[in-house]
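**Folding the chain**
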Amino acid sequence: MMQTDIQSGHLDVAGFIVPNGRFRVKGITYQASGGGAGVIDIFDTTVAPISATYGRSGTLVTVTKSVHGLATGDRVGIAYSAASGASATNGNFTITKVDANTFTITDFNSGTVTPGTACVYVNSGAKWLTSFATIVSQTTPVNVLLPGEGLLASLGIYVNFTNTAFVTIFYG
């Protein structure tokens, strides 16, 4: 049976599509801004993602955020910016606390990213759901239909994006 109670939310800047509630993300429409390659990160959260920086050496990702407040064993949902065409792997990871300003994550993949590269993360039961890349030459909207039942957001839906003109999320 087809779901008929689909709603949508539209953003021209990063923010909440739904600040709280359990929903399934069913589809996404977005368009690049023409200002360079961009990224769209979707989180299951009731609070905006926290900005930090990171570096990667091999599979070890080191995240720096002043007074992050996390403990070893906490889980974060994290999305990374690229540096020189490389980035760490977006996802949901268990962290190891190094000190009050630094924690590490073991990435699934290996590579090198210069320390100081931007990232955003959520914690306290919040999760990263998915990311999409935009390209400079993209002058028409892109429609993405998520298969099956879509992506479950148990807390709320937050969209963080750069170099993107708009994002519309369809949910139900």
Remarks:
- The chain has no helices and 14 strands.
- The two ends are 14 Å apart (CA to CA).
- The mean pLDDT is 94.
